[in-house]
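Notes from hallway chat w/ T.B., transcribed later so I don't forget. T.B. wanted the structure written out for a chain they're using in a teaching module, and asked if we could keep both sequence and structure tokens in one place. Agreed to drop them here.
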Amino acid sequence: MKLVIRTVLFHILCILIFASFYYYFNDHFKSQIKEEFTFLDSFFLSTTIQAGVGISDIYPISFYGKIIMIIQQFIMIMTNVFTLYIFNL
């Protein structure tokens, strides 16, 4: 049970950290719907990426924006792989 709680807290922490990155580097991202980029928009983007959905109206328009998204996707994938591995021991 402790492992499940730690995993959930890790995902929430990743969502908040990357939402802050997306908000801070908002000039590297573009929204299809509106011009202004709020923290709620960056939180939504981070949550969809961390959940593995990946569908959002915000997309990267620069090299650095793509790198930030790739890092979050890699962390999400590796966390899920290691969690499945540990539960199957």
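Follow-up for T.B.: Residues 2-87 form a domain with the Helix Hairpins fold (CATH 1.10.287.70). Might be a good example for the class.
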